[in-house]
């Protein structure tokens, strides 16, 4: 690496998609056909406006519709083609297609117990370590594409939180209610050369996010189903 490239400052914003149209509260995971709600589209537009003055030279998203639709106005605002990176996809989950949330009795159902034996892996879905590997790969690829500038990647709550936890040297297993990764939020990684020197977090569309869905909100029975993220 040249001396100049070692001093390059590159910023990669990893965004969680906006609200999804999901009236039945399904944990949609990697299922196709789940699009942004009208509110979700407003969130996407708000973040596009927030980033309009930034030096963004690369935009990519998970292949799932909600991520693609969130990234589209950002790419458009910068006159860029929207890329797709499979590594940004939602985590696999055995409960995909079901409702599974606070107060719905899922944890009391014996049929689910075999999937809940190891929260440290976790046993119900894609291993945390596997999520780290693919998300870090996508992050570094975006750094290379936008070196000396900024990039935006649109992904999903759990993979973003696991990536941040790894970078900040926290344990990967965690309480899902304590993730700091609200809808349409930005988790921002700043590189100097190839090295991450800081991690930031912001919520440009927080006024559009329902109170019960904000980071740290107290779970509300009937409202906090694990819709997928």
Automatic annotation (TrEMBL):
Tree of life domain: Bacteria
Keywords: Hydrolase
Enzyme class: hydrolase
UniProt-recorded Gene Ontology molecular function terms: hydrolase activity
EC identifiers of the protein: 3.1.3.-
Pfam families named among the record's database cross-references: His_Phos_1
Protein name: Histidine phosphatase family protein
């Amino acid at each position: 690496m040249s001396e100049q490239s070692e001093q390059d400052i590159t910023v990669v914003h990893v965004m969680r998609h906006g609200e999804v149209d999901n009236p039945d509260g399904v944990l949609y995971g990697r299922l196709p056909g789940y699009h942004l709600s009208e509110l979700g589209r407003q969130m996407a537009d708000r973040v596009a406006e927030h980033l309009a003055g930034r030096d963004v030279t690369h935009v990519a998203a998970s292949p799932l519709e909600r991520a693609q639709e969130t990234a589209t106005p950002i790419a458009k605002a910068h006159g860029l083609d929207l890329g797709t990176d499979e590594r940004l996809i939602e985590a696999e989950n055995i409960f995909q297609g079901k409702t599974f949330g606070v107060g719905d009795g899922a944890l009391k159902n014996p049929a689910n117990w075999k999937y809940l034996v190891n929260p440290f892996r976790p046993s119900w879905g894609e291993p945390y370590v596997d999520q780290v590997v693919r998300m870090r790969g996508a992050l570094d690829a975006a750094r290379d594409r936008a070196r000396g500038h900024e990039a935006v990647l649109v992904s999903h709550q759990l993979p973003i939180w696991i990536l941040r936890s790894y970078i900040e040297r926290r344990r990967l297993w965690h309480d899902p209610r304590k993730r700091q990764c609200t809808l349409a939020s930005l988790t921002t990684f700043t590189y100097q050369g190839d090295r991450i020197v800081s991690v930031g977090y912001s919520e440009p569309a927080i006024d559009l996010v329902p109170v019960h869905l904000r980071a740290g909100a107290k779970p509300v029975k009937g409202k906090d189903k694990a819709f997928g993220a």
